[in-house]
Amino acid sequence: MRTSDFDYELPKELIAQYPAERRDESRLLVLRRDDGGIEHRRFSEIDEFLQSGDLLVVNETEVIPARLLGKKRVTGGAVEVFLLEEIEAGRWEVLVRPAARIRQGTELEFGDGRLIASVVRELDGGKRIVDLSSAGDLGAALDEMGRVPLPPYIDREAEDSDRERYQTVYARERGAVAAPTAGLHFTESLLERLGSRGVGVARLVLHVGLGTFRPVAVEDPEQHDMECERYVFDAAAADAVNATREAGGRVVAVGTTCVRVLETIAGPDGSVAPASGSTRLFIRPPHRFRCVDALLTNFHLPRSTLLMLVSAFGGREHVLAAYAEAVERRYRFYSYGDAMLIV
Length: 343
Description:
Blueprint: E1 27-31, E2 38-42, E3 55-59, E4 61-63, E5 67-72, E6 78-88, E7 91-97, E8 107-110, E9 115-122, E10 127-134, H1 138-145, H2 162-165, E11 173-176, H3 188-196, E12 200-206, E13 229-233, H4 235-247, E14 251-254, H5 256-265, E15 275-279, E16 294-298, H6 305-314, H7 316-328, E17 339-342
Parallel strand pairs: 1-17, 3-12, 3-14, 4-11, 14-16
Antiparallel strand pairs: 1-2, 5-6, 5-8, 6-7, 7-10, 8-9, 9-10, 12-13, 13-15, 16-17
Helix pairs in contact: 6-7
């Protein structure tokens, strides 16, 4: 298996720059794993492919306004800081630009000095450890001055509407720098309708990191180094998953983030227990799935770890054929694009 085995051609105009007007108005490609059969629907019709006793597993992570634009406190030179992870209260690992000019001891300011970042340590790859401080509430300052960290393939500046739309309706736990995009299609009313039909919901947290956009730069995927992402999987989620499997229902992962958590913690028989920690799990063919029975996902970048995961679940030939048909039918791709359900 080579990285080039997961390549495909995508016209640039099919990369969605904005979401659908309504979350559940996006299109839905339904792919059958057994024979590669395809149906074309609207996302609002997803209930036709779910049944009583199925369990949706969703990621409750909340995207933080991670992009800060400011200047050096002494020289006034323009800087950009991208928040990656809060290590402890007020201390963050960040990505900075221009990295060569932001050294240990440098002070950066944002919002006319209302937010200060002091560089306390230099790391490789343009990363730094900084202490953030504000005259007022630090969280409020970050919310005010931070910008939504839209993916690099969305070729525009973040707008006010992105604060709502680049966030799932069930986001609860702050910490992600990218959205778990498969969940962006759900509305509160659609979730209520599914619940009334006996479809359950279990909730986990995996804070999506910047590594989700990092391409596989080597031809041998085994040489690719996955970045750690933190997760929490509590007792309520574990009980729901185990009860669903014991009753013969399907565990439906909403997004690749949920797949990675479930497959990280699942035992050989597919059972799960409460857990928290970090995962570097890189799922690619011929991974044997132990816990996940169906997958809802968006369309992913060529040569990416996410496309490899989806191909491991749906079969590489079936998935790439579905992608080719999606391109032909002018589906919208990537974070703000359309969805695929693999059953």
